[in-house]
Amino acid sequence: MAAIEFSSVSYRMPNGVLALDNIDMTIKEGELVAIVGGNGAGKTTLLKHLNGLLKPSRGEVRIFGKSTKDSSVAQLSREVGLVFQNSDHQLFSESVKAEIAFGLRNFGFSESEIESRIEEVVNYYGLAEMLDRAPMTLSGGEKKRLCIATVMAWEPKILALDEPTVGQDYLNKLRLRDVVKSLLRKGRTVLIVSHDLEFLWPFKPRTIVMGMGKILADAPADQIYLDSELLEKSGLRQPQLAMLANALGRDRPFSDADEAANWVKGLFVRRYDE
Amino acid sequence: MAQVLLEGLKFRYQRSVIHNLDPRVKLLLTAMLFAFSLIGSNFYQEAITFCLIAIPAVLARVLRRLMKLMVFAIPFSLFIILLNIWGGGTILHSFVIAIRFIEIVSSTSLFFVTTSPDELEYVLRWFRFPRDFVFAFATSIRFVPVMMIDLNQIIDAQKSRGLEIEKGGPIKRIRNLVPVLVPLIVTALVRSGELAEAMEARGYGAVKKPTSLFNLKLQSNDLMALSIIIPGFIALILLYLVMI
Q1: Does the beta carbon of B150 lie under 8 angstroms from any beta carbon of chain A?
Q2: pTM, whole model, 2 decimals?
Q3: Is the dihedral angle over the CA atoms B24, B30, B33, B35 positive or is it negative?
Q4: Which of A76, A198, A260, B60 lies at a CB distance of 3.0 to 4.6 Å from A52, suitable for a disulfide?
């Protein structure tokens, strides 16, 4: 069964702007999908349709076959965990422990289960040492991990991350990558909305490019990242390894720097042999 | 609810006869409409004031927004009617007071929806209010839409964590606001701190009397508006006196 289905979904904002224009897409269970595009492309609006924060003006969104029109935000959030861009908009409790417990209590978990789930996620997301600290006092990276932990505590089948790398340093980005990898290993469906193609590149995800509320392209990352024209049109910059592949006339981007170095070395060796 | 109220007070850039007026003229117009709302003591006078508010609203193309605000004010007006009847007032008199309340809200809104925060700042400065006060006041008005965006994003974030704000009894509903209000206040405080630092870095307070790039000056359209507004209102006051 498809985890997420958008059938001819359009959404007009209260001010009359058409934020989503006839979106059709299907995302399978366990799939990683990157949604990329410039500012105002409609990425976050699309994300908000997943847990019913926004309902389509036209068309239908189905989560595991069930229309979002028939469910409340709370019901849908049990299946779809949404982590927003600004961590400060989410955190309010007096401690990390209370912050994680908040969502679990809302979903009616028993106190014993809340305790065990808190223990599990704080260990998993490297927050065990700061259990009693006020979330507001955490660093940007820690806040982001806490936001993901608060959502993952109730184990939604789908996790949608809105611009997870904004304001994160390189080490935190690496940690975030590990988190995404582990979620995929667990069979979760993950959607990442981001401008940061360098961050997404190692996953080589199915990539949906959005612009003016429409899907401009939906293809494997290899294909999308080599299309410099499309990316430029969408206000995005090619990842450096894709840019290098383009410059060298290669038909697919390099996976990492080592592959690029070996390929260039190979060229020299061939020249030398000739 | 708060969204309707703020939408009814939010300035949007657009061109109209009213928007283009000097902010002091708009303030005078609003003050006169406000005064007429208070002076009116019977149904007919309040009806005239209502029309007087509608004319600039139509010219400014903001009537629909004001109507929304009026609808928002109706429950409060009903409360005023009930309170007044309970206090021994007649139904007609209570009704007049309720209309007066709607008119006060609308006339105030008319000024805010047609006057930009910058213009507001110029007017306050023209009245020689202290500079820090003017800056703080104008900035707080300017940040209302930003806080509104924050509020919506916070509500979305907490709803996504299973919070059902409208669920439960009155006490539960008030308690449900904690996860929304705490991040909102924290974000506002952080932003005000950042703004203060940015302003200081840009030389705010370096001199006691800074020069101004823009000074208010009445144009021909303002003089024309004043030549209609002032005699018109004097005539109406005389009419009201005759009606008494």
Answers
A1: yes
A2: 0.80
A3: negative
A4: A76
